[in-house]
Amino acid sequence: MSQQQSPAATNKIKAVCFDFVGTCLDWHSTIIAALPSDFASESKSDFILEWRQAYFDRNDELFSSGSQVEDVDISYRRALEEVLGRPKNISNKHLFTEEIKTHLIEQWHHQKPWDEVPAAIRGLKERHGYEVFVHANGTTRFQLDLVRSSGLAHFDMLFSSELLGSYKPAPENYGKVLELLKYRPEEVVMVAAHAYDLRGAKRVGLRTVYVHRWTDDVLENQEVIKTEFDAYLEDMSELGATIAGL
Fold it and tell me: What φ, ψ does residue 235 adopt, rounded to 5°?
């Protein structure tokens, strides 16, 4: 007679999906170094944080309107033009030649991981036996360049919004990943530094781990976020143990 599996056994976590830029990668250090040398140092961080938020706003507009997935380079370029056109930034607009704009967009493809990330991802595979995936908005070329520049080579697959045909947080975006992996929602954990992403994942039944990064979710209330998801972390140092305990 066959023995029925317990809920704990049937609901065992098998895969971990990661948002990439911001969550795993420190985009801020790369982009701030690429700004025009004449740009006032004390204003650089605020400017690129504003640019990053404008990129998210651009994605949200595309998602809300049901538009086709846009090349990430185009999205960042349009967000940059929008930010440079704001009254507070007009005085610096002349510093951004076409050459500098092109260089800045290229730099988004070359980022370093946050210090604890390589060991955390390696540990998920080697110590815990999970499959690990990039699951992020953007293009496949963008993700390939980032994997190479960051040295994060342990991922089993790269899932981009371009490849999936829709933006997160669309339910069909997460659903397509589950379909391709042949896993149930409760067998997959989504790790991200973006609440909108985890809210979308949670709606389709994925487990959710929020990683706080000071560079992202600058408009969100972190005290509220702490109550929303399965786990809230300040970095990925204890990610393996956290996921194992879900």
Answer: -160, -170
**Residue reference for tokens 């960042």:** 76
Q: How far apart are CA 57 and CA 51, in angstroms?
A: 10
Reduced to 3 states, what is the DSSP secondary structure of residue 97?
Answer: coil
For 20, phi then psi, to 5°, come to -110, -70
- Residue 32 C-beta-side C-alpha neighbours within 13 Å: 15
pLDDT exceeding 70 applies to what percent of the chain? Answer: 96
Reference 134, options 112, 159, 108, 151; nearest CA is 159
b/e per residue 210-245 (b: at least 16 CB within 10 A):
bbebebbbeeeeeeebeeebbbbbeebeebbebbee
CB atoms inside a 10 Å sphere around CB 205: 14
> Tell me: the pLDDT tens digits for 142-160?
999 999 999 999 999 999 9
Listed in sequence order, the residues at least 6 apart from 58 whose beta carbon sits closer than 8 Å to its beta carbon are 70, 75, 78, 79, 82
Q: pTM, whole model, 2 decimals?
A: 0.93
pLDDT given at position 165: 96
* Beta bridge pairs of residue 13: none
What confidence score (pLDDT) does residue 11 get?
A: 60
Cα–Cα distance for residue pair 23/185, rounded to 1 Å: 21
